[in-house]
């Protein structure tokens, strides 16, 4: 078990499983299991989240709204490059990944940051819209994305700071700043 927490009459726990090919040594997709149970160990809900990237959950924390926050590491490897970065995913009281009450990012990462000629965006979402703006508010890039990971060519962009947004069904699911050097 990668994490257990209790709040009132409920327990939350999570763990992750990586697909690993013993012959090739290649690590593939990840599965993260999260459950909410009563203190009597009756299951309220359980969810399995599949990711096409390496996810290593480290901690789960019960939140006052009846959901939980899962934190850990996510692989940022693309085209054979490997790296890890921290992630935090808010899971609501019904067990669904979504926007928290503050509207913060869930499981969306942007890397490398700072970067040069490529901006990678990875998310647990599929079929989303990405928008990128310069600091003057001018829309620089917009595209519908079908995959969980996308590489955006930024070779012709000026050095500077950009704001990215990930949008699903007209709701902003994540945003942040990216620096091009």
Structure description:
0% of the residues lie in helices and 60% in strands. It is an all-beta fold and 181 residues long. The chain has a 4-stranded antiparallel sheet with strand order 1-2-3-4, with no helix packed on it. The radius of gyration is 18 Å and the shape is elongated. 25% of the residues are buried.
Please summarize what this structure is.
This protein is mainly β and 181 residues long. It has strands at 3-7, 10-20, 27-38, 43-51, 55-62, 68-75, 84-91, 108-111, 118-123, 128-134, 139-145, 149-153, 160-168, 171-180. The protein is 0% helix and 60% strand.
Features:
elongated, four-stranded antiparallel β-sheet, mainly beta, 14 strands, single chain, 181 residues
Tally of DSSP helical segments: 0
User: Which structural class do the helices and strands define?
Assistant: mainly beta
Which percent bin holds the helix content? Answer: under 10%
Note poorly predicted spans: 99-106
Query: Biggest sheet: strands side by side, in what order?
Result: 1-2-3-4
Assembly type of the chains comes to single chain
- Write down the Rg: 18 Å
Beta-strand percentage? over 45%
SSE string, helix = H, strand = E? EEEEEEEEEEEEEE
Distance between the termini: 41 Å
Please tally the β strands and state the result. 14
Tell me, what's the shape?
Answer: elongated
């Amino acid at each position: 078990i990668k994490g257990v927490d209790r709040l009132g009459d409920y327990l939350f726990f999570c763990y992750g499983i990586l697909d690993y090919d013993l012959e090739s040594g290649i690590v593939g997709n990840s599965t993260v299991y999260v459950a909410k149970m009563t203190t009597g160990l009756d299951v309220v809900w359980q969810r399995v989240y599949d990711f096409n990237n390496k996810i290593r959950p480290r901690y789960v924390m019960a939140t006052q709204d009846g959901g939980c926050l899962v934190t850990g590491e996510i692989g940022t490897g693309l085209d054979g490059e490997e790296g890890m970065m921290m992630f935090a995913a808010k899971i609501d009281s019904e067990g669904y990944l979504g926007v928290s009450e503050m509207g913060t990012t869930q499981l969306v990462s942007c890397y490398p940051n700072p970067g040069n000629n490529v901006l990678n965006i990875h998310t647990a979402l599929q079929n989303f819209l990405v928008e990128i703006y310069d600091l003057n508010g001018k829309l620089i890039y917009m595209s519908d994305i079908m995959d969980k990971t996308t590489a955006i060519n930024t070779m012709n962009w000026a050095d500077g700071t950009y704001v990215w947004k990930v949008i699903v069904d007209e709701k902003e699911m994540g945003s942040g700043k990216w620096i091009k050097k």
